[in-house]
Amino acid sequence: MKSKSRYFRFIPLTKLLIIIIGIALIPLVISIVKSGYLYVLDNDEFNHVQLTYLYAHGSRPYLDIYNSVYTPLFGWFLLPVFRTMGFSFATIAFTRYIMILLFAIRVVASFFIVHKIFGKRIAYLFIPMFLLDPFVVFSSMQIRPDNLMMTVYTVGLLLFTLALYKPKPASSYMAGIFLGTSLLILPKILPSIGIMLIALSVWSIIKKKYIFAGASLVGLASPFVLFAFYCLLNGSFTEMFTQAVLEAKAAYSHFPIHIPLGNFYIPDNFLVYGTMGKPLTWFYAWFLPFAACIGIFVTVMEYLKKHFIDTSGVLKLMLALSLFAQWGALFFLQVIFMQHYLPISWLYALFAAVTIDYTLTTISTYKGARATAKIALTVLAVVMILTSIRNNIHRSKMDSTNLITAFTNRWLQIPEGTYTFPNYLFRPSIFPVTYGYFIGNVPPAILNRLPNIPARIEQYQIPFLLVDEYLMSKLPVEVAAYIQNHYTRVDGDGELMTRKP
Fold this sequence. Notes:
The chain crosses the membrane at residues 12-33, 65-82, 94-115, 121-141, 148-165, 177-203, 210-230, 283-304, 316-337, 343-360, 372-389. By secondary structure, the chain is mainly α.
């Protein structure tokens, strides 16, 4: 026992506490992966999988499909996997693993960004603070373009950061390509890209690196030029511009429910926090934005003390402004989903880590207080990790077994290759609005310019309709009347209708 005591005496307290937290993070990561993989599949995930199915079977983006603000890049990204493995739930499950891999890449890239700009201490604090965020765990591994967008953006931001420290036009151009591609995948990252362009302009003027800035802009524009050229070649440019730009606001504002900013911070939310009531994860979700604001204040004050503008200072201010820009953009949205927090959550964790580091540094000036603060922080971190593990496991028990059974039974009624209205998962479509996008959420002005529904049903002589009473109430009057005149409901099935003889 005496030799063991001497052994621990030679381990510095800080390293010992880091080892303890590091060991605790292992089961946390396992629970995060388990939650991300097993959590029940969402209707939006089916929508993006169905788009991939339709692309694989010859449907053209914008012309045959109502894509709205979603470019086909995410569907194209998934296409090789589904072509290789087939369109099945086994492939969908494998796709969740791909989303987990994208999340892992994002975590690693974020760590290196923070390490380069803020230093090692804050980078190591950032990782557990990021992984403990229930918003991150809930939405970062779902089959959505948001997760591909964030991964490509984070890698692009890392390349951009490295390029600013060692300016070369080639590296600047490559960073621009990644950042532009992320914006093309989904425009939700636009506020951060806008702030980055401002930071690039300021930095290039100060450093007189105009060629470097020009290379970044060319790289940023390149994905859009290539995509526009693709749309021009297949004749979809006008429709693409109409759906993605002109109709974007109308399409997004027509949801029947209003989900305000702050909705997900309400307690008793099992889906987000893994349990009812006000668990520690709920308090942590509230803690992050407040701690981040303090961290931003500390960052700005430290920057103002300097008598010169350096690269790290520009990048720190850029990230602080990116947080405010992404957060401020939410005030202009009528419907806010959990995915809107993805560009914000990592910045919350970053600047909250700045706050923790600043607090520890300040306390260390008082004799004996530093060790006490570190031990207290470690105990709190371990308790938070254990709570998160438990809640992640709770969430992972909400699997998709019942959903898979329901789809399998419906596929037995609707053979492969059979057209339906509205569209069904892994079945061909006669109408641009595909499975997973509720027709009732399409504004009437947009719906009226799409192909006539009764005419399409007659053209394809659709044998089956999947129209429940709620959907019937949301369809245009003439469409509902046509369906009632030509189809009859199957007994005992609130959705399936067959054509009248």
